[in-house]
Records
---
Amino acid sequence: MSKVKVAAFSISLDGFGAGPGQDLKNPLGVRGHELHSWLFPTETFQRMTGKSSGSVGVDNDFAAQSFENVGAWIIGRNMFGPIRGPWQDDSWKGWWGHNPPYHTPVFVLTHHPRADLTMEGGTTFHFVTDGPEAALARATEAANGKDIRIGGGVSVLRQYLALKLIDEMHLAVSPVLLGEGEHLFGGLDLPKLGYVHGKTAPGDGALHVAIRKM
Amino acid sequence: MSKVKVAAFSISLDGFGAGPGQDLKNPLGVRGHELHSWLFPTETFQRMTGKSSGSVGVDNDFAAQSFENVGAWIIGRNMFGPIRGPWQDDSWKGWWGHNPPYHTPVFVLTHHPRADLTMEGGTTFHFVTDGPEAALARATEAANGKDIRIGGGVSVLRQYLALKLIDEMHLAVSPVLLGEGEHLFGGLDLPKLGYVHGKTAPGDGALHVAIRKM
């Protein structure tokens, strides 16, 4: 059964899922990279960046699981790039180079239409302008029985949480205070939306928290 | 050197330090007691409630440390009781019976004057109507070189955080989603106020987080 899941999504102790002021130099917002310091040393991440080894253990287990059985991704336009407003041209192809780490169809939520963009390694970006439910319908079809991973950013997660469309969420609570940025849960009443917490597991770099829909 | 500290203060995964709707039946707000499920089984807490034993380990270590070297407490009026507005009479003497678990002077922040209230076991409640800085000055004098513990609730912690008067804070992040209640950090920019995170330690029932002033 295909699941809609969030995995390996990092938040700070004060609840921010990204720093403020995203731009070309700060893809995750100012200080946003600190949220992911648990992820970077893991073998899973190191291998994605061409290294031969990295840390193993709880953090790596969650990093590895986050990529298992994913048949399609949904991401927001700001996770795809720093450009705002209409696409000026097709030169921006994401942060990730010619061979992005998705290797599946990726549905990018945007208000501005753009042609499909096929990359190396099996990643195709599809730009969806008719909203999160339409994106999920297309991603579900593309996933062909595998899971749909909602990648982020914060705004996209909040939309899917509010629509009660997320089945499982794995958060990594990082021991960092950001103070400002994009708050994941502010103004969302998760229990009222039908979400409950599951298991927690401490890693070397973060506390891993499971949340699921009842 | 006397420190101003917060210790064993529990928050939910979504950042709430108390549930909504505090009243006589819900001293910690609705579902607020779930925040403290890491604390209740500990030997420290069990002994405070007259039992002979309880759990030991990381959670109990933090519970025990929270009471060490405390010379005075500061708490908010809502932590003292459910009554709002002027004191009708002196019948309310706190939630804790004749022998409260403080055993020191306790300075209660309130807008409504009331005479000192001396309890068994060394606890005296002093009602302070001239604000958090005045309460801290009195508590510091009363503590006589020992630490001042800011007990809560959320509003009181937020006031002292905003005033940059807290030296150390130990939070217990409980694996619970409350969805509503009193949010500890909302609207406060901790790094901008000069606070940084310190060590984290996973316990069986909560993730223990240290925050301190730079």
Note: Chain B touches chain A at residues 13-15, 171, 173, 175-180, 183, 185-186, 188-193, 195-197, 199-200, 202, 207, 209, 211 (CB under 8 Å).
---
Amino acid sequence: MSNIQSYIKENQTRFLDELFGFLRIPSISPEPKHKKDMLSAAEYVRKAILQAGADHAGIVSTDGNPVVYGEKTIRKDKPTILIYGHYDVMPAEPLDLWKSPPFEPEIRDGRIYARGANDDKGQLYMHVKAFEYLVRSRALQCNVRFLIEGEEETGSESLKKFCIQNKEMLSADIILVSDTSMLDEDTPSITVGLRGICYFEVKVSGPNRELHSGLYGGAVVNPANALARIITRLTDEQYRINIPGFYDDVMEIPQSERNEMKKTPFKLEEFKESIGITGTAGEKGYTTLERLGIRPSLDVNGIWGGYTGEGTKTIIPADAYAKISTRLVPNQDPEKIRVLFENYLAQIAPEGVHVTVKYLHGGPGYMAPVNSDAYRAASMAYEKVFRKKPLPVRSGGSIPIIAEFEKILGLKSILMGFGLESDAIHSPNENFRLNVFFKGIETISHFYGFYCA
Amino acid sequence: MSNIQSYIKENQTRFLDELFGFLRIPSISPEPKHKKDMLSAAEYVRKAILQAGADHAGIVSTDGNPVVYGEKTIRKDKPTILIYGHYDVMPAEPLDLWKSPPFEPEIRDGRIYARGANDDKGQLYMHVKAFEYLVRSRALQCNVRFLIEGEEETGSESLKKFCIQNKEMLSADIILVSDTSMLDEDTPSITVGLRGICYFEVKVSGPNRELHSGLYGGAVVNPANALARIITRLTDEQYRINIPGFYDDVMEIPQSERNEMKKTPFKLEEFKESIGITGTAGEKGYTTLERLGIRPSLDVNGIWGGYTGEGTKTIIPADAYAKISTRLVPNQDPEKIRVLFENYLAQIAPEGVHVTVKYLHGGPGYMAPVNSDAYRAASMAYEKVFRKKPLPVRSGGSIPIIAEFEKILGLKSILMGFGLESDAIHSPNENFRLNVFFKGIETISHFYGFYCA
């Protein structure tokens, strides 16, 4: 047993106790009523970093949720690793689908069940514990900075400003992030691409009040029917996006790289089965993995309007709403996409209703090289623990701040994710495998070893 | 001042007190939690009929909400009028748009504000008070039966069964109903046509849980996008219904009758302004009044799915739902339309999702002659009170039981409505004009006079 393995074994119940305390805080950033919980979660992280061995750690107020910053400096001429993570989580609704309450963590069948168990409290905490081991075992050979935010799930606006204002303090050699996934439990992977995002709320306003559908139906434009028509016009039958100019800046991936991607182990039947669908669909000419990794997408994230209670109510709704987001790929610019989206909606808005678009947040996509020192160190660290060389993958998800880090700080990020598809992040019964949690701590500590050697 | 006018003046505060007690009961039939309130409302009506002078009045249990039946027999050889009305009301949501609570009736600017003020508690109560006057002044020259139900807003299923089981008891010469509208405050009208209805709930089921829209977006069929496509395919751009066979049995109205309809006073600009819309739309080749009166329509009454809270949640919904209803005209058969709708949805359901249709309720349209004794009596009664001959109109609304009365009991109905467009039935701030309430009592008492003379 290696030193780090022994350390984890000796301290595992304490590690879980600490993580569970963190998971109990309902730090749901999209819901303003959790303002206080955001501060509690930030304070929890600050203390954890300090107790793990940081020279100092503090909470910085922002216009939004606070940023936690901590650091340990060994020697100025040593490399510096900047750890990024987030303490905010997604809303837990629908609550009735959770087998145990989302903010009362519970271990079942070797998994920790809680909102944030993986995304990102669990993954973030692995870094705090790997750092603790390195400090306590006097094996730390580089400087470390922690930069932990509370708005990742809502667009990282405050952290972006914080980075602009603190460029000097945040100077580093590499940013290390665990907020992504592995291909499966036995197949580690390093994420070398992320999609960007543009998130909108569309409101279709019709009559000045709900109308009786008998007395008005047939002569008045129904906002819900109109909204359906608008959504339908956003994509073609294969879900290729109809917005003029939308694909103009999409980076076309060379056939050679697409051939490489085909080597990724992926079983379509297992994919379908795991999420309970009978068929996939998407842009013509691309495989499922390509549709998820190298092509943009458009999804309705929520829709509502009119009577949604039990039974029947014979009305024409006064308004109808949809939350609609598109995932972007390099080199699509969210600001440009925002304008294209808004213009297209103005153009296709049916007569007789009024359509307004609210831009909620956005960020560009990201790409990382596979031939960097950091990539090699990460690859060796995974191989040592998982006994398998990790595969480079392009993820369909978005971490908008990763592209901003490159733009503002000039720093690349190395995305060492430990999530699994079955972790159900953003869904009811989010969970994180116990053995992955411990293996992650081990892998991260080896990354330090290889990178700083 | 006539006798009836004096009687109303002397008793007006008592009439309002009694009506307000009725309006305070939240007898919302579409919401099962109001089961007890349905019984309270039925009991309130039973007592009111009895106190107004019925020989007897009772409550009959059904599989659904109870039916109230009461009668007064003068002499077997006299004509019999069957009064139909309903004590159930629509849900009051959205509650925040009400200026005073929906079940705390309030008089403002000469109007009674409450859910049910017009539909149908207010209109029903006018009949109870007109009957009271006729009994107390010994002017009643016919037999009267009251048939009051609690499921009008949900399809009248229990009353239908009640009619089948009690044909004999319900024998009468005419059914008198106040559950429709006047053209405006100075223009009385008699409704000679009603649309039918078919009401469905459509569910689109996708993945077995909410999915992360980044990790899955672009390769998985989104149930909300799929639902939008389904709704869009139900009608063409002018909202003509695309369901094959849907128009097969639609009664085409002769040009001569359409020319008559054009004489109805109707100002398009005022219509648009009253409901705050910038433009109307509907089936090509028909005027707004025709679209509302003689043509079928299709409306989304409610739609929901995915994340509908504040801010952003980046998910693909597991399911999406819509309540969708169509208004039918003679001679469309709701059972046939139900099958056509279900078949069409099965046909257009996108691959990769599962579509289910629940039929919630339905009923056929109705037509009444303008040359009957009852029509003439109603016409004279209106003319006496409003000093204007009422116009025959076809209403876009549905009272499914009216067509059933004809089918089951062989009886025509005379629809003496006193509602106004500004009464906002089914909407927040439903109200009923005080002076219309009193004029209605007067008009109804004159109907008895002319019909039984």
Note: Chain B has a mean pLDDT of 95.
